[in-house]
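User: Please fill in residues for this 112-position structure.
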């Protein structure tokens, strides 16, 4: 499960991927995250096996070559799965609250 900054970065770069690779500058990545967090978030995604990236320079400007790995290619599916699990947990909590309320009402009426 990804952290918030990792999720923000993956949500930002995944649609830009063409053929599984992306050449992007830190300035463009700072649209998704603070400049100070970009490098550490990329390293984190690399260690979790979502992406592979190389730092380089183009016309004197630093750029990253980001390549999706297998886990990164499955990111949209994983994101939908997380949302589904969250909704299921929410529904279970609401269902539990309703059942406990009804049991409380039943016990109140039986005690009187």
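Assistant: Residues filled in for all 112 positions:
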């Amino acid at each position: 499960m990804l952290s918030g900054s990792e999720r923000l970065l993956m949500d930002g770069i995944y649609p830009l991927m063409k053929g599984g690779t992306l050449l992007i500058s830190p300035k463009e990545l700072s649209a998704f995250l603070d400049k100070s967090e970009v490098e550490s978030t990329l390293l984190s995604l690399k260690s979790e096996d979502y992406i592979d990236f190389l730092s380089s320079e183009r016309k004197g400007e630093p750029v990253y070559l980001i390549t999706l790995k297998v886990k990164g290619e499955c990111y949209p599916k994983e994101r939908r799965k997380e949302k589904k699990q969250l909704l299921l947990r929410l529904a279970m909590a609401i269902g539990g609250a309703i059942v406990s309320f009804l049991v409380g009402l039943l016990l109140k009426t039986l005690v009187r």
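For context: Helices lie at 4-13, 26-29, 35-47, 70-73, 75-111.
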